[in-house]
Structures are given as structure tokens and as C-alpha cells.
Amino acid sequence: MPANPSKSRIAFVLCVLAIAAGVAACARSVRAGSDSAAPAAAAAAAPAVAAAVAGGPPGGDPVARGKWLVDVLACADCHSPKLPDGRYDPDYTFAGHKASDPYPQWNDSLFTKGYGMLVSTSGTAFAGPWGVTFARNLTPDKTTGIAGWNDEAFINILREGTLKPPMPHGYGLLADDDLKAMFAYLQSLKPVKNLVPFRQLTPPRLPGEIPGQKTGGTKS
Hints:
By secondary structure, the chain is mainly alpha-helical. The protein has a domain at 49-201. The chain has helices at 5-31, 39-43, 62-72, 76-79, 109-112, 151-159, 176-187; strands at 118-119, 125-128, 131-134, 200-201. A 4-stranded antiparallel β-sheet has the order 1-2-3-4, with no helix packed on it. A hairpin with a 5-residue loop joins strand 1 and strand 2. Helix 3 (62-72) packs across helix 7 and helix 6 (151-159) crosses helix 7 (176-187). The N and C termini lie far apart (67 Å).
């Protein structure tokens, strides 16, 4: 029986990100060494990001390579709203959570009942202990999308740690050229005017606080 393409794609992505995380850890280990390390050893330290992902179209055609990467990383699974039959809405490809679509709300009691996240029927809004987050409009619309970004801004968003669940932080470990290719592809899409709601984050929690459980206080 042929392998499930979706599972194969996920396994491939996890492998790439695991390698990238290992490279980053290696770099941190070198930086944490003694100050007496030879300059040559420091120069040989691994970079903080991975090499370009193997396979797919070559980097000479950034749009084609970017499309391949976006497909492999399954970006549309979150950023393209789904219809009731599971197909992507062709009018909102990569346009994020529709402004008019309902979305779930989070209550910490759900965590104690075994729920870690609620997902909207469109698959573009996510509620969990962190609050409610929405898939961003990635089309080059001038007012509601990313037309005003450049590739540096795109890379910065993925690497500065400001992403919220369920967006994978590991995407920021991809090589600059691959991230630039992804951005080039997204900029080539048809602009879709869709103002995605702003995320609703839960107030910061105390260290070790478990959602749905009262923290013990110290009586004076």
C-alpha cells in the first residue's frame, strides 16, 4: 500500500526541523565554551540556522522554490480557510482566518478536562491556554495582507520568537535563501482583502502555574 503523502510530508518536515535544531544546539554549545577557545574553533562553529532544505526546484527560481517549500511545510493547512467538505476555500487561499467566521473561546477548565486546544471549523483560529490566535493573511493585499513587508521583515517575524501557537517556531531555523523564496512565492499570490482579527492573549501566568488550577499563596 502506498505511503500516506500527508504523513510522509510531515515526517520530512520534522526531520528537517530536528536537524536544524541540532545545528543550533551545536552552535550554542560552542559559544558556551571557555574564552580560551582558539579563534579557528570559533570560526568553525555551526551557523544558527540550517542549510537550505534539500530537494525541490533550485534557488535560481525563488518563486518556484518558495511554492515547493510552502507546500512541503503545509502552510495552507492553517492559512487557507477550509470549506465544510474539507477543501480549501478557493476565494481565500492563504488569506488567513475570515473576518466573518466564528472562532472558539478558551476557558481554563477545559485544560483540566484534557483539552489542549480548540480549532475553528475553518481550521484557521485556535484557542488554548495562551488565548486565541488567528492564521494571518499571507496574501500581498496592501491593507490587510503582507504587501508592505520585505523579505527581511518576513524572516524577522519567524526568528524573533513572537510567534504564538500553533505556529511552529522551528520554521525560523530555515536558511535565509529558503525563507526569502517562500516570501517571494507569497508575494506572487493573488491579493485577498481580508482583515484577520487580532489575537487575544491570556495575561502572563505565574511560573509553574497550571491552567484551571489555583496557585497556592503564602499567608502572612
